[in-house]
Amino acid sequence: MNSLTRTLCCLAGLITVAISSSCTHQAPPPPQVVVQPDAYEIFVKEHPKYPKTMSIYRNNELMKQATPSCPIYICLSQQRGRLYVNGKVAADWPVSTGVDDHPTPTGSFRVIEKKREYSSRTWGRIVDADGKCVVRDANSTIDTVPEGGKFIGSPMPNWQRLTSSGIGMHTGKVRAGRVLSHGCIRTPGRMARELFDITATGRTRVTITKDVETCYPTFVGTSDQQTAATQKTTAATEPQQAATPVDQQQPAPAEQLATPVDQQQPTPTEQLATPADQQQPTPVEQQQPAPAEQEEAPTPTEQQNDDTMTSAGGVRVHSQLVSYR
Length: 325
Fold this sequence. Notes:
The protein is α+β, with helices and mostly antiparallel strands and 325 residues long. 33% of the residues lie in helices and 26% in strands.
């Protein structure tokens, strides 16, 4: 009887140990799922100044699947164009749209006309009988052509008309983040040619938005970049410049009073130097955009500018993009 009792006690102890060990045993952790960033996300993050960059993104695999039904978006705040294939960004390129006096209209449009070689009927230059340019940024509806002279429309290769009023996409001079045109969407030559080969009249939809399109992919860092782009565009307009001091005065008027005092105490001479420093770049910055904004009427002379095209694999190839002056 005692031996049986001892046997039962041993079995109970073993069972207790087994149960306690099973309770303290931890299940293996679930495997970690690592989400690899796609090529477009890598492209954006590799360009700290994005969207203000002349680099062009191109996903080779998606571009092979591009059809005339694939939508194109033009973001005015970023001055970027994007082609979507199967809901993903297949290409992203810099554009230069209309200046304040000739803004690019927003809305949804379709390509209604395509011409590989095209010249503007409105914008161009006027030459006299000797062939000398007398009006560089001419408007054929306003400016008078001298006797023996003629109006020469601005060449706009890879022309894709979007409106009956003459707004369209075409090859033209582009500067990162800059508005330059009379309303058209200037596109780097390489991208303009490729888009021309993809689109079709009546089928391809081009949506021009002020802000980033709603279908734009979201990933870490995107919101900051978009915010920075919007702030840069906001700072470029006069009405919004006037609002900036008001915003600064409302939250911290005391800080504005303290700032001049801090500047006066350590170095009074800096107050004299500061306006000079500000005055020197101002005329340059104001003078440079002025002629560029009037260069919707480029001459037939072509100039080769270096641009960078980045493929999906991260391989960069320097390509010669044609621009007009």
